[in-house]
Each structure stands twice: as structure tokens, then as C-alpha cells.
Amino acid sequence: MKYAMKKMTLATASASMILLAGCATTHEPSNELTELQTRYNSVVSSQNLEEYAPVAFDEAGKSIARLETLENDGADDYELEHQQYLAERKLDTAIELAKHNRSQEYIDDADVRRKDLMLQARERDLTQAEREAAFMKSRAEAAEQRAEMAVARANSMEEKASQMASKLESVTTKLDKRGLVITMGDILFATDESEVKPGAVRTLEKVSDLLAEYPDREILVEGFTDSTGAADYNKNLSERRAEAVVKQLVDNGLAEDRLSAKGYGEEYPVASNDTAAGRQQNRRVELVVANKDDKAVDDRVAQR
């Protein structure tokens, strides 16, 4: 039990920072910060995972404390969202690393148990003892593999999406608190149309190829327009465009039950509608891929 016997001073210090943070501020913490603190406190005080990765949990605790400091200091939205993303990733990494180390302890324990069984086999069936030891070890090794795969999957999709976007015109990617966002600029539709242009079908095929590698990730397709024309018309057009992209993705082989569509019209502009270049940037479709398997994409929250 080599991990369990270590002193957990670093992780304990981080836990104390988060558990006591509320006593030193007059600022009402955001829902995101509260959720992070609650999750962190759960794993360090209830699940006892911190004993398997004290340094990683210490870094996660400091990152969460940094987010609280930024909130109290009135930092801007970009800095807060960036720090929240860092804190979430550090906490996810700490949890996965702890699970990995715990799995290694299981393997070590299984080896000890196997040796004990070998000795006991002098008085009973040796073959049965070997089978039991082999089963215990294989189960621990399987747990270790799952932990390693979870860490790898957390990084692979973002990297592959970035590589894909670099090869496609008017396609960009970024990672935010809702998930991986794939933005497709004003290339999919003709003016006032909601049918995918033939020239854009190949681009959606490339996107589909990437998404097919992650069949358990849910996807929200969001449509946006510029401010030209009536707001009701723009909202309806953006909804039809989002639904057209969903249909094309299904035609490309993606499961329909993991896809949903929503249109926002001229809401949530990313540039000024006072210029032609700005309006072109606002005419876009965004595919938001959930952060985790079997988890719905959170609804868009208005920019503060």
C-alpha cells in the first residue's frame, strides 16, 4: 500500500485553502467556482483520492483558489473563463492520475496476494490458486488501462480537431467550458438559403470523420446570422441552417440521437455588424462537442 502510506501535506494544504476560502471574501462566488470547490472537496475529503496524487491535487487546489481570487478582484470574463478552464483541467488530471496510481496499488496488492496464494497452494489445489491470482491481476491491469485511456482521450480530440481545422478553409476550433467548439464560417450556405452548398459538403465530411471517432460525445449544432433583416426571420433562418447541418452529419453516418440543433439568429455576434467583414464573421455555424462521454452540451449563456 505504498501510495496510501504517504503523508498528504500538499493536497491537505490545497484542500484547506478551498474549504476556508469562503471565510475570507465578501464576493458571492459564481456557480462555476462553487461547483469546482464542491467537487474538489468531495474528492479530497470523501473519496480520499488525493493520497494517490498529492502534487497534482495541490496544483488543482491552487488553480481553484486563483479563480476565486480573480472573481473577488473583478477580473474580466476572458480571464475568468481561461482560469476556470485551467482549474477544471488540473482537477480532471489530478483525478485521473490518482485513479491510475490507485490502480497501480491494486496491481501491487494483487502480486502480494498471488504470492500468498502460491504458498497456500501447498495445502490445496495449486491450479485454482494460480487462476485466482491471475484474475485479480488482470482486473487491476484493466483498471490501469482504463485510467490511461481516459487521459489520452481528453487530449486527442482537441489535437485532432486543430489539425483538421488547419487544413480546411474558414474552419476554426477552440476549447471552452462547454466543450470543443468547431466554428464554420460563411461557407456553408448561399445568401438567405438553408441548403448546404455542394462545395461545403466535403468540409462537413471531414468534420464527420473526426466526430465519428468519438461516438459517445453529444453534439449541439448552433446557427447564427448577421443583423441584416428582421430578427424573427434571422432566427428562423439560423434554425433551418443548424437543422440542415445536422441532417448532413446524419447522412455522413453520425448517429442522429447524439445530435441536436438550435438557432440564435443575430444573437451572440462575434464581430461588429456595422461592417461587411464583421457581418461575414457573424454568419456562422458552431458545432459544440461535449467535454465528456454521454453528457449533454450545456445551453449557451449570454455574454456578460
Count the domains. Answer: 2
Largest sheet features: 5 strands, mixed
- Uncertain segments are 1-13, 18-25
Instruction: Give the terminus-to-terminus CA distance.
Output: 49 Å
Percentage of β-strand residues: 5-15%
Structure description:
The chain is α+β, with helices and mostly antiparallel strands and 304 residues long. The protein has two domains: 9-154, no CATH class; 168-290, 2-Layer Sandwich (60s Ribosomal Protein L30, Chain: A), CATH 3.30.1330.60. It is built from eight helices and five strands. The chain has a five-stranded mixed beta sheet. α7 (231-251) links the parallel β3 (219-224) and β4. The longest helix is centred in the N-terminal third of the chain and has 44 residues, at 77-120. It is elongated, with a radius of gyration of 25 Å. The two termini are 49 Å apart. Residues 176-293 form the OmpA-like domain. Residues 119-160 form a coiled coil. One of its GO terms (cellular component) is cell outer membrane. Residues 1-21 form the signal peptide. Keywords: Cell outer membrane, Coiled coil, Membrane, Signal.
Give me some keywords for this one.
304 residues, alpha+beta, 60s Ribosomal Protein L30, Chain: A, 2 domains, five-stranded mixed beta sheet, 8 helices, 5 strands, 58% helix, OmpA-like_sf, OMP_bac, OmpA/MotB domain protein, signal
